[in-house]
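Q: My labmate handed me this sequence with no annotations at all. I'd like to see what the chain might look like in three dimensions before we decide whether it's worth expressing. Could you predict it?
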Amino acid sequence: GKTPQLFYKKLASKINNWDSTQLILSDERLTNDKLLSNTKMVNDIFDKNNGPSVIEYNLSGSQSSIEKKLKSIKPNLAILGLGQDGHTASLFPGKPEVFINNENITIYSKKEGEEFSRISLTFNYLMKSERIIFLIDGEKKARVLHECLEGEYNPLKLPAQYILHNYKNHIHFICDTHAAKYLS
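A: Here is what I predict for the chain of 184 residues:
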């Protein structure tokens, strides 16, 4: 998505040494259209030679090599967004399979109306993070943020609620006043 672009640009301008940093995106679109690629967005923001090491998904097949690598890595930080439909990463509403608690690190998904599939980190893996930050901006996200935080628990309708209700540590929210306008 576009929400993290400003955040990544700030990080890129403030941090000079990324030597011990590995980055994996919470999700990616499986398409040859570079304009839709989260990986391309990150690579455009960070200098490939001086930025973090990006673990890239295999866009044409199995994620077994990535899963093998990630099994030995406990994530320090998960930076997530919130979609207008209540999804986070590419874990979409109405998809009960995203809640299967297994040891898989990645899952394939598809958003209705899109011609391409996606690859996403699973809830199981995201919630192993030492910290979780949600980045949320814009008035279009205000109602869903309110519903996720203050509404009835229904993760099948609002998948982000699964993290909000099951993550054992504190969750941090960074949002603008437009996104927070319905919060009490």
